[in-house]
Amino acid sequence: MRITKGAVAESNVALNEKELEEINKFARSPLKEEDIYCFAVLLCDNEVDRDFERFTVPALMKLSELFVGKTGIFDHNWSAGGQKARIYRTELVTDRHRKTLLGEPYAYLKAYAYMLRTESNAELIAEIEGGIKKEVSLGCSVARSLCSICGEAAGKCSHERGKKYGGKLCYFELHEPTDAYEWSFVAVPAQKNAGVIKRYDKGFSDLHEFLLKSGGEGFIPELETLKRQSELGKRYLEGLRSEVVKLGLLFDEKFDAQALKSAAEKMDERELTAFKAAFGASVSEKLPLVCQIPGAKKAKKEDFGSEFMI
Length: 310
Known about the structure:
alpha+beta, 2 domains, seven-stranded mixed β-barrel, two-stranded antiparallel ribbon, 11 strands, elongated
């Protein structure tokens, strides 16, 4: 699963002998302090972001390894000419005086990047120093994205990101990063704290655009099929919720219709099916089927359907 998220950049990191040593691991010819401009980037953190997703701390630790050596570009344009900076080291920072939305200590991945002080880079350096170029976005892959409500894989359950179920916010937890692609200067990060120092963003507006731009056009028909199936699934769940509410009101007219509807919206398919069966059985007890054929006797339960026989 490809993930793109936001970050923030922090200008002018002080160079010393150790920093130069780390930077020169990536240079073909030794670089001197006067040749280099350095800055720090807050790549991602463990807060729930604008996409209602969050990295776990173990995921941040893995990303800290994967992002060393990755290049910085613009608007996720992967052309060689757009490569302007490179991350030479990272560190995982924990701020125990600050809590996340979930009440955990705030942690973030801080990366240190360098670029050459060339004439072509002078304007970009000035924009970073002036706070114009600040927000950045990272691109990476994760093995698992799990629903915070039920623990199922993202998209495998009926819970929706951003909604609350029983007072608990639904978001997707991102686990086990498998690769880091790049980080890019962008306009708006998905993670609120991202930039030149955080941002976490998606790079592509949707999966259709990603397939078009990554050479996966052959998968677009399959994607369209999945979209149709998804819509059918949504309509099925809405119909199921409506049936549960109707049967619940038939079961007990004292039920508050709005409260019952609100409760049904929080249920997944398994729970809805169970309530439908329970309500349906009780309603059948209270309101048995009446034969519409004149003169036919009311059917016993064991003879269900016999009054329709000729």
